[in-house]
Recover the amino acids of this structure.
């Protein structure tokens, strides 16, 4: 995993698979949709980083791939490498894509391995909320699923995370 760039953060508290983090600002290219299967948008996002953008510029693959969930729709997002300044990010030519900017923020995360499914997302979200309650940490906003490996990786070797922003 070390060969791919990812958002920068500082661990403020660590407890087994749980962490409280302070993230630096970062940006993503995001495909917004109502299909939360986890595969929606991947080809569109891959085309964007392969040069299908206003400047025809190739963008390095990064980690993690992010899914941001809400009740009616979610997103699949590729992190923009930190070498791109906010103003220099190539604009998408595909109208289904948008550029999202995450300001510096605190978040909690729980790591886990294996395949992703709705039951697992719900289970780890519940575990993260319980850990936050025990540690008097207030969460806000949507749940982010962060995946760090190729779908071809062995499930037992996959690094996944559920992340929620905090107050």
């Amino acid at each position: 995993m070390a060969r791919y760039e990812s958002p920068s953060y500082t661990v403020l508290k660590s407890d087994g698979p749980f962490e409280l983090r302070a993230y630096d600002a970062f940006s993503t290219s995001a495909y917004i949709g109502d299909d939360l299967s986890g595969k929606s948008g991947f080809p569109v996002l891959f085309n964007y980083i392969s040069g299908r953008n206003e400047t025809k510029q190739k963008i390095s693959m990064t980690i993690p791939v992010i899914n941001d969930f809400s009740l009616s729709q979610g997103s699949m997002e590729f992190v923009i490498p930190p070498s791109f300044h906010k103003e220099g990010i190539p604009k998408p030519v595909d109208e289904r894509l948008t550029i999202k900017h995450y300001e510096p923020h605190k978040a909690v995360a729980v790591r886990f391995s294996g395949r992703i499914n709705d039951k697992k997302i719900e289970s780890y979200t519940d575990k993260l909320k319980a850990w936050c309650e025990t540690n008097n940490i207030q969460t806000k906003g949507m749940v982010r699923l962060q995946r760090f490996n190729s779908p071809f990786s062995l499930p037992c070797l996959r690094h996944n995370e559920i992340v929620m922003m905090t107050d």
Remarks:
- Residues 9-166 form a domain with the Multidrug-efflux Transporter 1 Regulator Bmrr; Chain A fold (CATH 3.20.80.10).
- Strands lie at 9-15, 18-23, 26-33, 65-69, 74-79, 97-102, 105-112, 139-147, 160-166.
- The mean pLDDT is 91.
